[in-house]
Amino acid sequence: DRLLELTGTIAPGGNKQILDKLDVERERGITVKAQTCSMIYNYKDQDYLLHLVDTPGHVDFRAEVSRSYASCGGALLLVDASQGIQAQTVANFYLAFAQGLHLVPIVNKVDLPTADPPRALEQMEETFELDPAKAILVSAKTGLGVEGVLPAVIEAVPPYVNRANLPHITPVGDHLKPLKLLLVDSWYSNYKGVILLVRIFDGQIKAGDHITSFATGLRYTVGEVGIMHPGQTPQTMLRAGQVGYIYFNPGMKRSQEAKVGDTYTTVGAEKLVERLPGFEEPKAMVFVAAFPLDQGDYAHLEDSINQITLNDRSVTLQKESSEALGAGWRLGFLGTLHCSVFEDRLRQEHGASIIITPPTVPFKVAWKDGREEIISNPAHFPNLEPGKNGPYAELQEPYVSVTITLPEEYLGKVIELCQSNRGEQKGLQFFTTTQVILKYDLPLAQLVDDFFGKLKSLTKGYASLDYEESDWRKSNIIKLQLLVNKEPIDAVAR
C-alpha cells in the first residue's frame, strides 16, 4: 500500500490492503493469491514503469510464489525486525535464488517496541550472505524509510529498455525480436472469457495480433491488451519487459486451454522462438474427500469447484463416490491452510457448503485367478471373516519416496516420526553443516493422514517435504467397518 501511495497509483489513506482482493485474505490477514500492479515512478528526472507482484509467504501457496518469480527480475526480501528469519523466508529465498533474481533486503516493522533490527541484519548475513549495508530499514505501517525502497530497486534490478542515463547496464529484452511471452496467471470473466496475465520477454503485442500457444497449438486473435494500474487499464500495445493482461476476441472459453507457464508467440514465428522453461507444479500433500450436503447441489458444486481450481492450479481433483454420501470428489491440497482457505472460498464466493471427510488411498488386490484390481472406495474392498484367507493372493498398497530437508537439531524427532509411520530409511546426508537431507519410503496412507502437519509442528515449520510415487508393496490390510444397528455404514469404512 505504501509503495502504491508513493507512486500515486492509489490515493493515500484510502482502502487498506488494496491487493488483498479475496474476503478470506482480509479476514485472516494473509495473502492467498498473487496480485499484480504497475506503477510509474520518477527517479533522477526519468520516469520508470515498475511492476509489483504481491505474493503469499506461506509454504502452502508456493505454486503462486514460483509463478510470480517467473514474471519478474528482482524481489524484496522482507524480514520482520521482531521475529527475525523464519522458515518460509528460507524456503522462498532459495526459490528466488534458484531463479536468479536480484534481491533487495528489507527489515520491516522497525517501529515495534520489540523490534531488534541489528539481530535481523546479522541473521540475514549469516543465513543468506546478504550485505547488511545494503539493507533498508522500514516500517510499512508508519511509512518510515519506505521512500528508500524504489531507488534501491531501480539500481539493483536490470531494466528492459536501455536508456542513455544507465549505459553500464545491458537491457534483458528486445522489443524488435519476434514476440515471446510467458503466461503467468489466468482468471475467468463471464463477459470476456479467460483473461491472461502475461510477461513479455521479447517483441510487442497489440489488439488484432494473431498468436499461438506452444503447449496446445491453438490460435487466438487478441481483443485487448493493458496493464493493472491498479484495475485493468487498456493500452494500445504491450512491449518487451511489461507485465499486463490480454484477452481474446472471440474469447478463450475453456480455462483448461490457459496452461500456466506456457509460451505464446505470433503465428508464423514458432520456429524462431525458443520455448520458455515452465515451472514445476507443486505436489498435493493433504487429501480430503468432499461431498455436497444435498445431492441435488452436485452440479452447482462441481461448477463452483471448477471455477476455483481454475484460478488455483495446485488443487488436484478426482471423482469419488460413497454409498451413504453419494457422489463427491477427492481433493488434494498443498497443506491444511490451503484446504481450509478453499473451503472458505467455496462458502463465501459461491454459497456452497461441503462435507469434508478424511481421504482414502487406493489399494491393489491380486486375486487368485491372476487378475489385479485397484480399489479406491473401502466399500468395494473384499470382506474377510477373521482367521480365514480371502479369495485373493495378496494385497498391496502404494508407497511414496519422501525427501525431507530439515535443520540438524530436529533430526532425532523426525526419524522417530518416520519410523512410527511405517517408514523405511533410504538415505541421510548433510548438505551444509546444519541442514540435513533425509530420504524415506513411506506408505501413501500415512502421508495423506496429515503427515506434513505433524512434521511441521515437530520442526517449528523449518522442515520441507517433497515426494514422488514409488511402487506398490505387499501389505497386511484389513477392512474396518462401523455398524449402526448391525448395518455397515460405508461412508466411515476404512
3D architecture notes:
By secondary structure, this protein is α+β, with helices and mostly antiparallel strands. The protein has helices at 2-6, 23-28, 62-70, 87-98, 117-128, 149-156, 298-311, 336-350, 411-420, 444-448, 451-458, and strands at 35-43, 46-54, 74-80, 102-108, 136-137, 180-189, 193-202, 204-206, 210-213, 219-228, 232-235, 237-239, 243-248, 263-266, 286-292, 316-322, 326-333, 354-357, 363-367, 372-375, 392-407, 424-430, 435-443, 464-474, 482-484, 487-489. The strands form 7 sheets. Strands 6-7-13-10-9-14 form a 6-stranded antiparallel barrel. Strands 19, 20, 21, 22, 23 and 24 form a 6-stranded antiparallel β-sheet that branches. It has a 4-stranded antiparallel β-sheet with strand order 16-17-15-18, covered by helices on one side. Strand 22 (424-430) and strand 23 form a beta hairpin. Helix 7 crosses helix 8 (336-350). The longest helix has 15 residues, at 336-350. The model has no long low-confidence stretch (mean pLDDT 81).
Reading side by side through the largest sheet, how are the strands ordered? 6-7-13-10-9-14
Biggest β-sheet description: 6 strands, antiparallel, barrel
Structural class: alpha+beta
Mean pLDDT over the residues: 81
Roughly how many Å is the radius of gyration? 26 Å
Q: Tell me how many strands there are.
A: 26
Low-confidence stretches: none
Anisotropy-based shape: globular
- Ends apart, CA distance between termini: 49 Å
Percent strand: 25-35%
Number of helices: 11
Please state the oligomeric state of the protein chains shown. Answer: single chain
Question: Can you give the helix content as a percent range?
Answer: 10-25%
